[in-house]
Specification:
This protein has five helices and no strands. It is mostly helical. The radius of gyration is 13 Å and the shape is globular. It starts with a helix and ends with a helix.
């Protein structure tokens, strides 16, 4: 399995996208899927992506929550072409949840 495939899966699992009604970061899901060593390698990468999307500046005076989420997602896609649509959706989900 290549690194980008692992990272994409890790983002989705870490946040619980498609499994939970709200994002809930949980390292244990990474350990179950990848084992302790690989989870230890992936977790800081996932957290880095979460920090990065969280730092994207949105003009909330002109954009709705949904539009801001789409903007943040497109910016992450531009910066990280290796991210899958599902991983980008998970990041957008967390981003919009945090701004509610």
């Amino acid at each position: 399995m290549d690194d980008s495939s692992d990272l994409n899966k890790a983002v989705i699992l870490y946040l619980g996208h498609g499994m939970l009604v709200a994002p809930l970061p949980d390292r244990s899901r990474l350990v179950l899927m990848f084992g302790e060593q690989r989870a230890t390698e992936l977790e800081p990468l996932v957290k880095g992506l979460l920090s990065e999307i969280g730092s994207i500046q949105i003009d909330w005076n002109t954009l709705s929550l949904d539009a801001g989420g789409r903007f943040a997602r497109s910016e992450m896609q531009r910066r990280h072409g290796e991210l899958s649509d599902e991983a980008l959706a998970a990041l957008e989900w967390k981003f919009t949840f945090d701004w509610r």
